[in-house]
Amino acid sequence: MKELEERILRDGIVEDGDVLKVDSFLNHQMDVELFRAMGKEWVRLFDGEGINKIFTIEASGIGIACVAALEFGVPVVFAKKSRTRNIAGEVYHTEVPSFTHGGVSDVIVSKRFLLPSDRLLLIDDFLANGAALEGLIGLAEQAGATVVGAGIAVEKAFQPGGERIRAKGVRVESLARIKSMTSGQLEFC
Ligand code: 5GP
After folding, report:
1. pLDDT above 60: residue 86
2. Sorting pLDDT into bands at 50, 70 and 90, what band is 102?
3. Which residues pair with 146 in a beta bridge?
4. Backbone phi, then psi, for 89, in 5-degree steps?
5. Is 127 in the pocket of ligand 1 (CB under 6 A)?
6. Most exposed: 8, 88, 138, 162, by fewest CB within 10 Å?
């Protein structure tokens, strides 16, 4: 998506450790007009797929997911990073290693909000190693829900996540795919 690529080139900052900082428009200050255009693009790409719910993960996917959900006309559920371990019974649970912070988060979602009849679109801001998406897919599997696909804002295609998730048979639609990046130079696929 040209508009997103141009914005990354204009305002993105490449940091050490293969991290792209986009906090001026994507995950701290949020350009919701850009999010709306992204949502419309996913609606176009997943047209006719019967998506009835968007499923994302705390925290930085939530804003994008909410605006996309308005375009789809469906609700959003986000998986929560939980500090409470004594949660068995009412929730599905998995563990997700964090790309940006290190460490592993316990991630939960209430059994009330993921149903076997659900046709889910997973949404996240970044795809790097694929751990966040794998966590969401695992929770969806526990619920018996169908994962229609994943809508990603920025895929760092030089990292293994995209290949890993596509190898599972999950359709991944990334609106900007970065082939390589160093400070001063960033190239899209
Ligand atoms: P993965 O689980 O695919 O390794 O990483 C995806 C998650 O890590 C995303 O939810 C995102 O929050 C974070 N992330 C990964 N790479 C980047 C990056 O280059 N920049 C930012 N801002 N977040 C990233």
Report:
1. no
2. confident
3. 119
4. 105, -65
5. yes
6. 88
User: For residue 52, how far is its CA from the centre of ligand 1 (angstroms)?
Assistant: 25
Q: Are the C-beta atoms of 31 and 25 separated by less than 8 Å? A: yes
| Residue 96 tokens, joined | 């997700």
Instruction: Answer for the pair 45, 173: CB distance below 8 angstroms, yes or no.
Output: yes
Q: What residue type is 126 in one-letter code? A: F
Inform me whether the pLDDT recorded for 147 exceeds 70.
yes
pLDDT score at 17: 79
Closest CA to 46 of 174, 175, 162, 149: 149
| Tokens found for residue 106 | 């316990």
Picking from 121, 128, 118, the residue whose alpha carbon sits closest to that of residue 165 is 128
Residues 74/53, Cβ–Cβ less than 8 Å: yes
Q: Residue 153 corresponds to which tokens in the numbers above?
A: 């804002």
Contact (Cβ atoms closer than 8 angstroms) between residue 153 and residue 4? yes
pTM: 0.96
Nearest to 31 by CA among 15, 52, 12, 55: 12
Whether the Cβ atoms of residue 87 and residue 108 lie closer than 8 Å to each other: yes
Q: Is 60 in the pocket of ligand 1 (CB under 6 A)?
A: yes
DSSP 26: T
Q: 16 pLDDT band (50/70/90 cuts)?
A: confident
User: Mean pLDDT of all residues in the chain?
Assistant: 95
